[in-house]
Design a protein that fits this description.
The chain is mostly helical. Helix content is 70%, strand content 3%. It has one domain (2-88, 104-207). Strand 1 (7-10) and strand 2 form a beta hairpin.
């Protein structure tokens, strides 16, 4: 798809800003902003964001992140349903049709960390052998697994998802810079700011059983 490589303008001598980078950046910002504000409409934007990410990673040969997108779509659909169809004891005090914010227990958090380390290591090793064109298989895999964890926690409306997203953003900044992306490192930095704000916002929702 030639349109993805359309150069909008250039930053410096070797930093072209592609159309696909700009589209993905704007969709990503809109998605996380809505999620941080506890809006179910983040899922509608998320569907478009997933498609844009698939195209962008394909364009850069980041195969682990590319293969993540169909899984991300499934998690997005699950989260959309869970946020709007809570169980009797899961309903928000402010809206009985909305899922309230909850937290992981410490044993669950330790299990999540162990799972990320093991799966990321195995996936990176496999990716290094199946897709030698991937410039950073282990970093790519680490980002992939962290995103899956963050998305799953977000789908269940766990406060801990924002901690995972902060780790994702830090890792993604390194990944995007390594392959020459221009807008995505800036977007990830904005994600960090939004993530910190959302940590506080969702803590208030948790304490208010919302």
């Amino acid at each position: 798809m030639e349109w993805m490589n359309t150069i909008l303008f250039t930053l410096g001598s070797d930093r072209p800003v592609l159309l696909i980078d700009l589209v993905t950046s704007l969709l990503g910002l809109a998605c996380v902003f809505l999620a941080g504000r506890n809006s179910k409409y983040n899922f509608w934007v998320g569907y478009l964001y997933t498609a844009a990410l698939f195209l962008m990673f394909w364009n850069k040969n980041l195969y682990a992140s590319l293969l993540l997108q169909p899984i991300s779509l499934a998690i997005n659909i699950l989260g959309h349903y869970r946020w709007t169809h809570p169980g009797a004891e899961e309903r928000s005090a402010a809206d009985e049709k909305a899922l309230k914010v909850s937290m992981l227990s410490w044993p669950e958090r330790l299990l999540a960390v162990a799972a990320v380390l093991i799966v990321a290591g195995l996936w990176g090793w496999t990716l290094d052998r199946l897709f030698p064109a991937d410039p950073h298989p282990y970093l790519d895999s680490c980002v992939t697994v962290l995103i899956l964890l963050a998305q799953l926690l977000s789908a269940m409306k766990k406060w801990d998802c924002w901690v995972a997203w902060l780790l994702v953003n830090i890792t993604q900044i390194a990944l995007h810079l390594s392959v020459g992306h221009v807008f995505m490192p800036i977007v990830c930095a904005l994600y960090l700011v939004n993530g910190l704000w959302s940590l506080a916002t969702w803590m208030k929702l948790y304490r208010n059983k919302q």
